[in-house]
Design brief:
- The protein has a 5-stranded mixed beta sheet.
- It is of the alpha/beta class.
- The radius of gyration is 69 Å and the shape is rod-shaped.
- The chain has 6 helices and 5 strands, in the order H-H-E-H-E-H-H-E-E-H-E.
- This is SCP domain-containing protein.
- Keywords: Signal.
- InterPro entries: CAP_dom, CAP_sf, CRISP-related.
Length: about 290
């Protein structure tokens, strides 16, 4: 639009200039009568009217080519959280089916057999008490307290002696002495059996050593020292026993059993073991 206005202004200016130039030529031309030619003077021909030269349009700066349209980058979708698998639906816990309550018949008193008046009820036969389970045989550190108690009772039964009861107090005292690793009499007033073996890991491991003296016992004579461990095991007057085990450095397993009341009492071998032996003055019997 601005370019067209400039062209119109330039054309108007050129037309005005041409008209002014023509007017000036007419003012300075020689006077002539209208329609009467002047003799001897030739009329100068009029120059042809020149068309106004249109002004050149201003040079236009080259328009830079438009860059190719870039495709719009689609926005990244929001990160989706991983969908966790749904836990399986749990069936509602149903209460246990209750059995319909049935009416209980009236309790009937057990029928008792009537004894004839002339007969008395038979006496109950009691058996000797069974050995207590090992979990109840506390006091010492024997891993096989029940086993060594059973070995005692089996040997005593062969000799007509009643079974022994396990004493936690005797077991604790025997354990204390075993921890000292001294193979000698403790002097505590109990019946004693002691034994030391390099590979012993249980209390019952000492039983074959103690029972091995049975062959050297002769009724009616003085028991040799090698038989005193066996005579204490089968001593009928002893009622309780308790044992302990300790691992002594450079020696092995040390097993100690205490008995109460003590056995191997002079003058009582005949009543408690059999025969008329007069030996066994010491209640302690050691073997290594």
């Amino acid at each position: 639009m601005r370019g067209r206005l400039l062209l119109l202004l330039l054309a108007a200016c050129c037309a005005g200039a041409a008209e002014e130039s023509s007017s000036r030529r007419r003012l300075f031309a020689r006077p002539t009568a209208i329609g009467i030619p002047v003799p001897g003077v030739a009329a100068a021909p009029k120059p042809p009217a020149q068309e106004p030269v249109p002004p050149k349009p201003p040079a236009q700066e080259p328009v830079p080519p438009k860059p190719p349209a870039q495709e719009p980058v689609p926005p990244k979708p929001p990160a989706q959280e991983p969908v966790l698998p749904k836990p399986p639906a749990q069936e509602p816990a149903l209460p246990p089916a209750q059995e319909p309550a049935t009416s209980k018949p009236p309790a009937q008193e057990p029928a008792t057999a009537k004894l004839p008046p002339a007969q008395e009820p038979a006496a109950l036969v009691t058996s000797p008490p069974a050995a207590e389970p090992s979990s109840a045989l506390s006091g010492g550190s024997c891993p096989d307290a029940a086993a060594i108690l059973k070995r005692h009772d089996d040997e005593r039964a062969k000799n007509g002696a009643p079974p022994l009861a396990w004493s936690p107090d005797l077991a604790a005292a025997a354990q204390d002495w075993a921890d000292g690793c001294k193979l000698q009499s403790s002097g505590q007033g109990y019946g004693e059996n002691q034994g030391l073996g390099s590979a012993w890991r249980s209390c019952a491991a000492a039983m074959p050593l103690w029972l091995g003296g049975k062959g050297s016992y002769q009724p009616g004579g003085t028991p040799p020292s090698g038989a005193l461990a066996w005579t204490q095991v089968v001593w009928k007057g002893s009622k309780e026993v308790g044992c302990g085990l300790s691992q002594c450095p450079d020696k092995g397993g040390f097993v100690v059993c205490f008995y109460d009341p003590p056995g191997n009492v002079n003058g009582q071998f005949d009543a408690n073991v059999g025969g008329q032996g007069q030996g066994g003055t010491s209640p302690a019997n050691t073997a290594g």
